Amino acid sequence: MSIGHEVLLLNSNYEPLNVCNIRRAMSLVVLGKAEVIHHRDHPIQTARGGVTAPSVLKMRYQVRRPMPELRLSRHSVLARDSFTCQYCGSKGRELTIDHVVPRWAGGPQTWDNLVACCRRCNLKKGDKTPAQAGMKLARRPKRPHFIPYLSLPSYLRAQSKEEWRMYLPVFDEFAA
């Protein structure tokens, strides 16, 4: 069974709950806790042969959960900035987090002061403000205006899967 395959899990009211692996998804179906809404195009191989794999599941009962909070983390800042350096525009996974206003100058650890930055630009900027370093931000950093039930990185990954999009809320700032 392919452990890496992800399945979108919906609440009984079709609200996105989570993204889980295929093993967890299959156990929810077998236990009767969830039903399959969409199947994956390719079956998965088991000891007894091929089985159609779920892509989207819906819980058979309503799962109560607290309103999530959008946490400020390194991964969330990188996801907000689309894994793109906010100074030179280079894309990639080798990014760091830069304080627009340096900490020594009173720059806070907030959504409005943190941006994704490549190592080259981070070294160039050093402990200065962008103006002092002669650099310009591609866009002003800001806190995202929504609170998704999925984490921001999971939400952005989920947007890339065609069969999941109809179940995900649309946020203009992350529209594909």
Secondary structure blueprint with pairings:
Blueprint: E1 6-10, E2 16-21, H1 22-30, E3 34-39, E4 44-46, E5 49-51, E6 54-59, H2 74-80, E7 95-99, E8 114-118, H3 119-125, H4 130-133, H5 152-158, H6 162-165
Parallel strand pairs: 1-6
Antiparallel strand pairs: 1-2, 3-6, 4-5, 7-8
Order of helices and strands: EEHEEEEHEEHHHH
Largest sheet: 4 strands, mixed
Helix residue percentage: 10-25%
H/I helix tally: 6
**How far apart are the first and last residues' alpha carbons, in Å?**
31 Å
Strand content: 15-25%
- How many β strands by DSSP? 8
Q: Short description, anyone?
A:
The protein has 6 helices and 8 strands; from the N terminus they run E-E-H-E-E-E-E-H-E-E-H-H-H-H.
Could you explain how this protein is built, in words?
The protein is α+β, with helices and mostly antiparallel strands and 176 residues long. The chain has two domains: 6-67 and 152-174, no CATH class; 74-133, DNA Binding (I), subunit A, CATH 1.10.30.50. The protein is built from six helices and eight strands, in the order E-E-H-E-E-E-E-H-E-E-H-H-H-H. The protein has helices at residues 22-30, 74-80, 119-125, 130-133, 152-158, 162-165, and strands spanning 6-10, 16-21, 34-39, 44-46, 49-51, 54-59, 95-99, 114-118. Strands 2-1-6-3 form a four-stranded mixed beta sheet, with helices on one face. Strands 4-5 form a two-stranded antiparallel ribbon. A two-stranded antiparallel ribbon has the order 7-8. The chain is elongated and about 65 Å long. It starts with 5 loop residues before the first strand and ends in an 11-residue tail after the last helix. The mean pLDDT is 85.
